[in-house]
Design goal:
The protein is an alpha+beta fold and about 260 residues long. About 20% of the residues lie in helices and about 30% in strands. The termini are far apart.
Length: about 260
């Protein structure tokens, strides 16, 4: 029988001990768990970025995987700790919108407010619920404890709003929603959007005063150091520089406008 899998997504970084402590708490309760790091380098406090990364990653794991997401600027306040359950996965973290994009992907799911102190560490700090609540709850779930034991089911939980592109006539107005570690600029424009106005190879992409004359099939389609647009692995339009950094080249930031037109 396969060992249960618990994934970790946080903004803790790699300098401090926080991510390692989560693993220690989990392994103390269930030493047979397999722990996988999705990322600990989410921009601090950036819930939207964490939601995007989680949404892109969660479905590639085996059924039964328990996903912990801790980007939690409201830790210690009255924001709820929650457990989200569907037929394939568990999600544990704060009710601050971190699961907002996941909700849109799940067909049927239940959300539980985590209240049962039997599954917490004995002492609960005001600043580290990842250690004291989320990690032990995940570990107990991995041993077979039913989700309903963690607390009452709720229907009032926070969603997440990411701007949608606007399609008018022959133009698509979108935005940068995420900048990855290579400096690639991920937009909110899905392949389906650009297919509505014309073939990908004959479009113009305007960003930061620059014009890119087509959507390329891959990074090698332009010379080294040149700007390009392509459809990334998430099926969203991305702006990149071959073997370079589009964010630095353009001085771009999340929220900047992107125009696609004929």
């Amino acid at each position: 029988m396969r060992s249960p899998i618990v994934t970790l997504l946080t903004d803790f970084g790699s300098k401090d001990h926080f991510a390692g402590i989560l693993k220690g708490v989990i392994l103390n309760i269930n030493p047979s768990v397999e722990i996988v790091d999705i990322s600990h380098n989410i921009t601090p406090y950036n819930i939207t970025e964490g939601a995007i990364i989680l949404n892109q990653a969660f479905s590639y794991f085996p059924k039964g995987t328990i996903h912990i997401a801790v980007i939690d600027p409201g830790v210690g306040t009255d924001r709820k700790p929650i457990l989200v359950v569907d037929k394939n996965y568990f999600f544990i973290g704060p009710d601050n919108g971190i699961f907002g994009l996941v909700y849109n992907r799940l067909k049927e799911f239940n959300v539980f407010k985590i209240t049962n102190h039997l599954f917490f560490l004995k002492s609960i700090s005001a600043t580290f619920h990842g250690r004291d609540i989320f990690a032990p709850v995940a570990a107990h779930l991995s041993t077979g404890v039913p989700p309903s034991e963690m607390g009452p089911e709720i229907t009032n939980y926070k969603s997440l709003s990411i701007p949608l592109p606007s399609i008018k006539s022959k133009n698509i107005n979108g935005n940068i929603i995420y900048i990855d570690g290579f400096g690639n600029l991920v937009t909110n424009i899905h392949r389906r959007c650009i297919q509505k106005i014309k073939k990908e190879s004959s479009l113009k992409i305007k960003i930061g005063g620059k014009i890119i004359t087509k959507v390329s099939p891959n990074y090698q389609s332009v010379s080294r150091g040149n700007l390009l647009a392509l459809i990334g692995s998430s099926e969203m339009v991305e702006i990149a520089v071959r073997e370079g950094n589009a964010c630095k080249m353009l001085g771009a930031k999340e929220g900047d406008d992107v125009l696609i037109c004929k």
